[in-house]
């Protein structure tokens, strides 16, 4: 049996990435999340996304507001399970995550 070529593997991997999918490379972002959020993020940044896969910018005449809204909506759909964690201790996590999503979609 022959192994797939690198281009076939790359194509298949790229095709699996849905719009709004989190990108996690372990980078710490420079975003002000407020005193409590900054402390939490500093201690746990590796758990959070540092990018979002979204290509909506290719559409002609897209306003920044429409782009950001579409990016946030796609991210919400792609990550429903993680965004719906409702444990009491996850409230700060959720607040920080949503702030990061808004910032990453605005970049």
From TrEMBL:
Keywords, sorted A to Z = Amyloid, Cell membrane, Copper, Disulfide bond, Fertilization, Glycoprotein, GPI-anchor, Lipoprotein, Membrane, Metal-binding, Prion, Signal
Bilayer disposition of the protein: Lipid-anchor; GPI-anchor
As for subcellular location, the record says:
Cell membrane
Domain Prion/Doppel protein beta-ribbon: residue ranges? 26-106
Q: Which domain of life is it from?
A: Eukaryota
Q: Which GO terms describe its cellular component?
A: external side of plasma membrane
Which intervals of the chain form a coiled coil?
A: none
Name the Gene Ontology biological process terms. Answer: protein homooligomerization; single fertilization
Give the Pfam families listed for this entry.
Prion
User: Which GO MF terms does the UniProt record name?
Assistant: copper ion binding
Q: What does the similarity note say? A: Belongs to the prion family.
Q: What does this protein do?
A: Required for normal acrosome reaction and for normal male fertility. Can bind Cu(2+).
Q: Which named protein is this?
A: Prion-like protein doppel
Q: Which species?
A: Felis catus
Taxonomic classification: Eukaryota, Metazoa, Chordata, Craniata, Vertebrata
**Coding gene?**
PRND
